[in-house]
């Protein structure tokens, strides 16, 4: 604020660090104040603004749920001739996922594909997660099928995301199928994968299958954590065992 008030130039790296610090702040007034400062920097030092500054601001706006401002910032990127990158698209998709705006998630996904930009396991993982958060598992499955065709599906996070979605709709058979596919495709299973699988079992009241997943998990050398045990305890308490 002192720099801007005295007509001094701010450093874009300092601005990016400032913007990132806003993500973890619980003080909404401080966050709004910080966003306003970044806006002033963008207006006053247009020649210093780059993708990193915009992406940092977009991420904060997504966290606070200011989707109107996020849209405005995306438009400003176009005005400033700063092309969106894979990171930009991933950030925006996450924001729309938090806002439960499936139409905007799919619109961004189509734009990514149209530009042949950012279609990789990381950004696709953001899209799948957003679809699951929006309650559109069917869309997530359709996109995952596109990834299968493109050979981009062999990723642990992608499978774990879909299994979490299947847990929400209590589709144990679907989750087991994905687990079996992971084994066939040699996709590594991790703690999150098994915790999600056991969550499906508990939600469906199938503790026998949950025990089998726990056995597989231990055989792979993956140590259960607090979530693993709390999930199983919840399941056994529901069945009275």
Map the helices and strands.
Layout: H1 2-5, H2 12-22, H3 28-44, H4 51-64, H5 67-79, H6 86-98, H7 102-114, H8 121-133, H9 137-150, H10 156-168, H11 172-184, H12 191-204, H13 207-219, H14 226-239
Short structural summary:
The chain has 241 residues and is mainly α.
Low-confidence stretches: none
The topology string of helices and strands comes to HHHHHHHHHHHHHH
Reported by name, the CATH topology of the domain at 155-241 is: Serine Threonine Protein Phosphatase 5, Tetratricopeptide repeat
What is the distance, rounded to the nearest whole angstrom, between the alpha carbons of the first and last residues?
62 Å
Instruction: Name the CATH superfamily assignment of the domain at 155-241.
Output: Tetratricopeptide repeat domain
Strand content: under 5%
Gyration radius over CA: 22 Å
Q: Looking at the structure, what is the overall shape?
A: elongated
Give the strand tally.
0
* Main sheet record: none
User: CATH first level of the domain at 155-241: which class?
Assistant: Mainly Alpha
Average pLDDT: 88
Tell me the CATH architecture of the domain at 155-241: Alpha Horseshoe
Helical residues, percent = over 70%
Derived structural class: mainly alpha
Work out the oligomeric state of the chains in this entry.
Answer: single chain
Number of helices: 14
InterPro entries: PPR_rpt (IPR002885), TPR-like_helical_dom_sf (IPR011990), TPR_mt (IPR057027)
Organism: Strombidinopsis acuminata
PPR repeats: 50-84, 85-119, 120-154, 155-189, 190-224
Domain Pentatricopeptide repeat-containing protein-mitochondrial: 40-147
């Amino acid at each position: 604020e002192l720099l801007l008030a005295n007509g001094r130039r701010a450093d874009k790296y300092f601005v990016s660090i400032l913007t990132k610090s806003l993500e973890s702040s619980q003080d909404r007034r401080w966050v709004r104040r910080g966003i306003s400062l970044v806006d002033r920097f963008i207006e006053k030092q247009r020649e210093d603004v780059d993708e990193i500054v915009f992406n940092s601001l977009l991420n904060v706006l997504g966290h606070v749920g200011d989707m109107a401002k996020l849209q405005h910032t995306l438009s400003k990127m176009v005005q400033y001739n700063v092309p969106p990158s894979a990171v930009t698209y991933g950030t925006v998709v996450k924001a729309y996922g938090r806002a439960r705006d499936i139409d905007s998630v799919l619109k961004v996904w189509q734009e990514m594909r149209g530009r042949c930009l950012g279609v990789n396991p990381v950004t696709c993982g953001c899209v799948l997660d957003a679809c699951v958060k929006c309650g559109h598992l069917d869309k997530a499955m359709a996109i995952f099928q596109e990834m299968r065709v493109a050979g981009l599906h062999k990723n642990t996070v992608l499978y774990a995301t879909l299994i979490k979605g299947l847990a929400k709709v209590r589709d144990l058979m679907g989750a087991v199928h994905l687990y079996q596919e992971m084994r066939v495709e040699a996709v590594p299973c991790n703690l999150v994968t098994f915790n999600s699988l056991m969550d499906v079992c508990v939600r469906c009241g199938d503790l026998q299958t949950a025990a089998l997943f726990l056995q597989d998990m231990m055989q792979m050398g993956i140590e259960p954590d607090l979530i693993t045990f709390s999930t199983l305890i919840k399941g056994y308490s529901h069945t009275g065992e």
